[in-house]
Amino acid sequence: MVSPLAHDDPQAIGPYTLVARLGSGGMGTVYLGRSAKGRTVALKTVHEHFAAQTEFRTRFRLEADAARIIGGQYGAEVIDADSLAPTPWLATEYVLGPPLDEAVVFCGVLPESAARVLGAALCDALAQLHRSGVVHRDLKPSNILLTALGPKVIDFGIARAAGDDRLTRTGSTAGTPAYMSPEQAIGGEHTAAGDVFALSAVLAFTVSGSPPFGSGQPADLLYRVRYADPDLSGVPDGLRPVLARGLAKDPEQRPDTTELRTLLHDGGGDFAEHLPDTVLAEIARRAAAVWQPQPPRQPAPDAHLTTSAADPRRPRIGRRKLLAAGAVLAAGGAAGAAYWLRDDRASGRGNDDRAGAPRRSPGGASRMSWKASVGDSGQEADLFTVGDSLAFVSEGGLHFLDARTGKRRGVNEQIISSDAVASGGRGLFALDDTDFETARIVPVNLTTGAFGTPIAEVRHIAAGDLRFLGAVGRSLVLEGETRDGWQRIAVNSRTGKEMWRRPMSDSGNAADIMATPTGSSLIRSDGERVSLIDARDGTTRWTTKIPKKMSGGLSPGARHSFSADHLFIGTWELLALRLSDGEVAWSFGKGREFGASYEPGAQHYGPPVVKDGVVYAMERLKGLVAVDAGSGRLLWEEKGDSLDYDFSATPAIGDRYFYASPDNDSQWIAAIDLRTHRVAWTFASPWGDVGGLSPTITALPKARRAVVMRATSVCAVPLE
């Protein structure tokens, strides 16, 4: 996604004037640039501290060489490069299309036919590399761009000649854990067969929306890649055996790119003919956006900034028209492209459909307050609140925004895991585990994103084995594998002094763990278990096992709510557990009518919210219910014809409205009036029909904002 230049970004790099940012990560920044003759390019640069390393400059030069090998048909054509400049840079064509991960998140999973033609084209791209003796080593959805003419593979930062280990440090692994081959995960040689493994994992994500080995901490992912069977339950039946072969643990059992292409049998025809209309519209929107005025450079951090509520549209055009537009743009024909890519507004249609404005009855909701992007890929971001700042963790790093205005405050590109972050009071702390066996707990500057002076060090077995559980008052609680086994540790956030240390009998599955502070304690859930941990001394006060059919409310991302006496969980029923002993105080929902499509084993209640002695939760197939927090007695339920809701999405509540998420990819909020018990208004996505992950809505009473987030896109409306 295009974003404004930062105040300290250079005016130009080499002969190219910088226009906007395309993305930024832990290694460097990619800019949108233009030559003196108007040619648009993508300019990749590296961070200053990497530029000082001879080894990294060599990697950068090899990346340019690999990009030249794959060529303009299967990759972004290399236009120019300078690996010897003070800041090394690489200029390639600006590819007119979204990364595959964003396409899946925003437009939905691809149908089997589209995945087959995509996979066949990627087999051709990898074969081009392999014939030259080069392996990619980091094939993943964000490194594949979808264009009208076919996919293009990018980012060869760790590509190398097969068998060449000179640029791989002993004992290290390079790549993305969710898409690594088993041999790569243990630091072994990654051959062409490893690229086939990664491609098979990419295609599984393309049709199911999830990597075949799940998500979570790198250490857990690497373990699953090496030892667990891939989860292909979401893959269409016809494609499942093909991908299962590509994901074989033994490299010798995998097909090569030629055989895999045959197994995929793409069906022929133009690539665009197989893509869904939503993806074609996104390609067209990005193509048109190249010639639109770019956002102004961001002011310095101490300058006043008023955010813009821009209104990007997604033009709908036919496949043949899109192919013609791609040819025009590839030739640099701006005027021709403007004709081919004009949308319905040029003919007078759709002028009143203002994306981003709440659709409301008179006197309803006000307009959107702000919107922003907090990452470079479709991976879902995690939200933390720190004073009047919002902190979002995604693959693009840790981003800080002002909760009221949306103003960007800072970014730290080293932090890409929410388990490495804890917010306590008005401070934010991170785990800096660049040292393999020692993690440093560091404060994070909310203005610049920079790490402060470490307050403590914790020795552990390996990087990734230590994680924050949460923060309660001055206690920063961590869990990890130390030389003395798995332990839970608390460190004082002011002094850095270790407060207590407790052994853990079972570490649990990191992907299932979630913790929420309440009073002086932490509620920790792990699969079917929920426990109350006293943050003052580390004692586990109680542990309760929730029946498997009812444990959906304990899954990561499902928010629990608390009163002074109870923990509320939305599961197969709506449950209240006593905080004193973990026993069930009451349950609600047994015997309720759910209509013809009722499923006895399904989760029926979404994440609950409690306010003023009332528990609110979305009920599957029905709508909002309000029950008494003390007794579980039904007080009222939504009136009228309820919308279809994404009842599992995280809701929020204000003084006047309950904010729920419609089960509609183009609408993100439905405001239910707490007095009339009816839907008062709905809020349309400012990005159009994006699909993908469920929205998360967070109420920020001090900032008077309701913040809604989907993947790495976030916006806010006034909280009422």
Quick recap:
By secondary structure, the protein is of the alpha+beta class.
Portion of residues in helices?
10-25%
Poorly predicted runs are: 157-173, 302-365
Q: What fraction strand?
A: 25-35%
Structural class: alpha+beta
Q: CATH architecture of the domain at 45-281, please?
A: Orthogonal Bundle
Indicate the overall shape.
Answer: globular
Give your account of this protein's structure:
Helix 2 crosses helix 4 (112-131), helix 6 (192-208) runs antiparallel to helix 8 (240-246) and helix 10 (277-289) runs parallel beside helix 11 (319-330). With 720 residues, the protein is of the alpha+beta class. A hairpin with a 3-residue loop joins strand 37 (652-653) and strand 38 (657-660). It is built from twelve helices and 43 strands. The protein has a domain at 45-281: Transferase(Phosphotransferase), domain 1 (Orthogonal Bundle).
